[in-house]
Amino acid sequence: MAVRVVIDRRRCIGAGTCLVLAPSAFQWRHGDFLKPELLDITTVDDDVLREVAAACPTQAIVLESVLESVETADLGI
Ligand code: SF4
To answer: How far does the centroid of ligand 1 lie from the alpha carbon of residue 48, in Å?
Structure first.
């Protein structure tokens, strides 16, 4: 199952743990001091994203499971 990543910038304190653990998936947001943004989360495994979310000191990274399009079609959504 695919994972969607949401960064709550109000909770983020700019600790940078996400960038250290997954530098290909997160980067500093241009023009927004010490706030991250997604770069390319497909470059890391879902397990790494879970590790990043667990390591964020303020729980600013939220993972949401996303149903694959085929599964969605099967549900008739
Ligand atoms: S680990 Fe959490 S607090 Fe640190 S920069 Fe990333 S989102 Fe912000």
So the answer is: 15
pLDDT in tens, 20-40: 999 999 999 999 899 999 999
Where residue 36 sits, what CATH number does that domain have? 3.30.70.20
Is the distance from the beta carbon of residue 23 to the nearest atom of ligand 1 less than 6 Å?
Answer: no
Give the domain extent around 53.
2-74
The CB density around residue 41, as the number of other CB atoms within 10 Å, is: 20
Q: Select from 23, 16, 3, 1 the least CA-distant residue to 60.
A: 16
Which of 33, 56, 63 has most ligand 1 atoms within 8 Å of its beta carbon, as the pocket-test mutant? 56
Count of structural domains, the chain? 1
pTM for this prediction: 0.83
